[in-house]
Design brief:
alpha+beta, TIM Barrel, Immunoglobulin-like, 15-stranded mixed beta sheet, 4-stranded antiparallel beta sheet
Length: 312
């Protein structure tokens, strides 16, 4: 598995962005991103244009669209034909036709201010089957770790993990150049195989994503020769489990590693430089665990969960 960086929510002047498509790609390359998704509002870009820019700038571009309605925004990745947003109302959330394709679906900025200030930006649909949703923008926009709407989204996501698998991602909702005084995050995505775009799609579906302002957390559970990565199930009959966190790109900032679960925090470690933390934790009554990096009491990075499945 290799870690690549990706931005999954972008816009151009084809909808409400300031960038041309090429300017967006140039900006992504300037940030050393490996992958971007192009997700204009209710608009898709020609495959020929995408391939031309991929070849010119040596970057992978995932075709997509932000399905923009009056009751919420849904980002659709790996989408190759237009889907009409006008077919559903507030009580008619049905993505059956989309799920028949290879596309994946993510709820965008779910707790952002909505009507009447920004109609449609707040998610209002009732999702009857969360298995229809592949990922959830837990962080969005700039300064994502201190954004009040994102903190609501993070809490909602943690609660949802008790009943379903739902991958957390960051979506910048990138419309224009970012002011120098603003901070953005990134997605580290664990890709398996040589096909970058399909590897990213598969990794998002599987939960191999770390959301971060900078640090990368490689979080695993292990037992003898058996290693379990984020997004996977850990089957055990034990009450104690070993974990390993390889933390890089910390930039010598005093930080705390916190292992969190459905029961709350279950392990702490103070760190100030790139580190390898190996320890064990009790998993009695634990359903899932994530690794979090905090700095000055604010979260700066978090993993997707490993799910604990107790054997009978």
């Amino acid at each position: 598995m290799k870690w690549v960086t990706a931005e999954l929510h972008t816009h151009t002047c084809a909808s409400d962005g300031n960038f041309t498509f090429e300017e967006l790609v140039q900006s992504a390359k300037a940030e050393d991103l490996d992958v971007i998704a192009i997700t204009d509002h209710n608009t898709i870009h020609p495959a020929t244009h995408i391939r031309k820019l991929e070849k010119k700038y040596n970057i992978d571009i995932i075709a997509g669209m932000e399905w923009t309605t009056f009751y919420g925004h849904l980002v659709i990745l790996n989408l190759h034909s237009y889907i009409d947003w006008r077919t559903i109302g507030p009580s008619q959330f049905d993505v059956t036709d989309i799920k028949k394709s290879d596309a994946i679906l993510g709820i965008a900025h779910p707790f952002r201010v909505g009507s009447p200030i920004a109609t449609g930006c707040h998610w209002e649909y009732e999702v009857s089957d969360w298995n229809d949703i592949d990922y959830f923008e837990v962080w969005s926009n700039v300064n994502p770790n201190i954004n009040a709407a994102n903190k609501k989204a993070f809490k909602f996501w943690l609660d949802k993990l008790n009943t379903t698998k739902l991958t957390a991602v960051y979506g910048r909702d990138w419309h224009r150049p970012i002011p120098a005084d603003k901070i953005v995050a990134k997605n580290y995505i664990g890709v398996i195989g040589d096909n970058m775009k399909s590897g990213v799609i598969d990794a998002i579906k599987a939960g191999r994503v770390v959301v971060s302002l900078a640090p990368l957390i490689e979080f695993t559970l292990f037992d003898n020769d058996h290693v379990v990565n984020i997004g996977e199930d850990y089957f055990t009959s034990n009450c104690i489990v070993n974990f390993k966190c390889v933390i890089t790109q910390l930039n010598n900032i005093p930080s705390s590693l916190v292992i969190k679960s459905n029961l709350g925090p279950i392990h702490f470690a103070n760190i100030s430089q790139d580190s390898i933390i190996v320890s064990n934790i009790s998993i009695t009554s634990v359903k899932w665990i994530i690794a979090v990096i905090e700095q000055n009491t604010e979260m700066v990075a978090f993993t997707n969960p490993i799910f604990i499945r107790q054997k009978e």
